[in-house]
Amino acid sequence: MTIRGVLFDVDDTIFDYSSSEETGLIGHLTAEGLLDAFPSPAEAVAVWRQIMEEEYARCLAGELTFAEQQRVRTRRFLTHAGRLADGGMSDAEAAVWFERYGGHREAAWAAFPDADPVLRKLAPAFRLGVVSNSSLSHQRRKLRRVGLLDHFGEAVLCSLEHGTSKPDPAIFLAGCALLGLPPHQVAYVGDRYDIDALGARAAGLRSYWLDRAATGTAVVDGVTVVHSLDDLALDLIPGN
Ligand SMILES: [Mg+2]
Q1: CB 25 within 8 A of CB 45
Q2: Which end of the chain is more exposed for a tag (fewer CB within 10 A), N or C?
């Protein structure tokens, strides 16, 4: 089966989301005088991530807008830290607090070192695109900032604009359509086994699960495990 296109997840696949989130949060909490509200910086990051997972899922389900989930995360986190003033926090105050966090996080934005070289390697032989559970303006800005956007041209698809999110097959198929290719000619790579690897497989794409931590997790037939984007390039272009 000839693969002619490759679709990428963004966060923690080509873009180092977790590192920028951790560095940004710790920098922000230090600046706000909030770090001592937690037993350790790692605990603060763990709480922030747990709240993010829950509220971002509600955003993807259409219960909260992108901006609302930011404000809800802010209030929940400050409540957990015991630092939410009596009477709560207005929308404007919560938005500004999150914006200050965003400034610290954006200062730490970075692509994974293997992303740009592999995209350059694949570009001559494959049509390249993105399918991400996020907002288009946010992801395009992020990819532009870290120098990856030009690899994808207009083939950047995000769930908030598309209306369904991974692992729904519809968004993978829409990504293939953006590349002008049928799903059996398209590979997908992402770091989440459930939503990326199993979702792409169910939609009929060639599915690669990026397990950067090399966890050794067993996978079902039809999912290929790679530990880096270099592994992906090697599988798609043997001997490159
Ligand atoms: Mg991801």
Answers
A1: yes
A2: N
Our separate counts of H helices and E strands in the chain read 10, 6
Residue 57 sits in a domain whose CATH number is: 1.10.150
Answering whether pTM is above 0.90, one says yes
Tens digit of pLDDT for each residue in 54-112? Answer: 999 999 999 999 999 999 999 999 999 998 877 789 999 999 999 999 999 999 999 99
* 126 DSSP assignment: S
Ligand 1 centroid to residue 142 C-alpha, Å: 14
11 Cα to the center of ligand 1, angstroms: 4
Q: Are residues 219 and 143 in the same domain?
A: yes
Q: The domain containing residue 155 runs over which residues?
A: 5-16+110-236
Q: Which residues, 6 or more positions from 144, have their beta carbon under 8 angstroms from its beta carbon?
A: none
On whether both 154 and 208 belong to a single domain, the answer is: yes
- CA 94–ligand 1 middle distance (angstroms): 26
